[in-house]
């Protein structure tokens, strides 16, 4: 199965592994950083034919499926994205699924779009539910079912963990997790899912702004241009249309 490799010492909010023979350690990395009920491997047909079998063998114990696309930059199309996300949904992929991108930029770009689409489905499907139940009941149900189902895969933190670690985990659970879902559901009760989805696009902007003072990260011109485009788009779609002239 391979032991967990040592991550590089980088000032990032996620681990980066770069070592000889890392392909044999993908299963260990997935179990440690992203345990899930299902594992989907997405690759182009050339890379998948050479390397996917090694990762499939390491994911034994949970449902795992390989999805392939043709190689090449020309595959970055809406039609290919739709084909891929339809296949994931038909297989049963959801928020409890870990997706492994095996290959280069085409696969990674498609997965980013796919992640956005799946979260959009969540927002749209939640709105009818909120017409029958209050947001607090919905979010309570989500976590009442979600926590027991994920514990067999994630386990509990060690009891000997320091108090500051337990406090940090409590804050992450109460604030960025339960609190965020609850606020999203409250918003969905009052405005369309399209509006909620638009304002969720502010998350990367806020995260980048907080990373500068809290993590010591620096912003380059690419981040500034991307943030400006995001905020500009939100302002455009949030404007009220002008009233129609009287006939």
Count every helix, treating DSSP H or I runs of 4 or more residues as helices. 9
Shape: globular
- What's the CATH topology name of the domain at 1-132? Rossmann fold
Compute the number of strand runs.
Answer: 3
Q: Biggest sheet: strands side by side, in what order?
A: 2-1-3
How far apart lie the N and C ends? 73 Å
CATH class type of the domain at 1-132: Alpha Beta
Low-confidence residue ranges? none
Helix content range? 55-70%
- The helix/strand series, from N terminus to C terminus, equals HEHEHEHHHHHH
Taken as a percent bin, the fraction of beta residues is 5-15%
Structure at a glance:
By secondary structure, this protein is mainly α. Helices cover 60% and strands 8% of the residues.
Could you please describe the fold and organization of this structure?
- Helix content is 60%, strand content 8%.
- By secondary structure, it is mainly alpha-helical.
- The chain has a domain of 132 residues: Rossmann fold, CATH 3.40.50.1970.
- The protein has a three-stranded parallel beta sheet, sandwiched between helices.
- Helix 2 links the parallel strand 1 and strand 2.
- It is globular, with a radius of gyration of 21 Å.
- It starts with 25 loop residues before the first helix and ends in a 9-residue tail after the last helix.
Brief descriptors of the model:
Rossmann fold; 247 residues; three-stranded parallel sheet; mainly alpha
SSE topology sketch:
Elements (H helix, E strand, L loop, with lengths): L25 H8 L4 E7 H14 L5 E6 L8 H14 L5 E6 L2 H26 L4 H20 L8 H28 L2 H8 L2 H13 L5 H18 L9
Parallel strand pairs: 1-2, 1-3
Helix pairs in contact: 3-4, 4-6, 4-7, 5-6
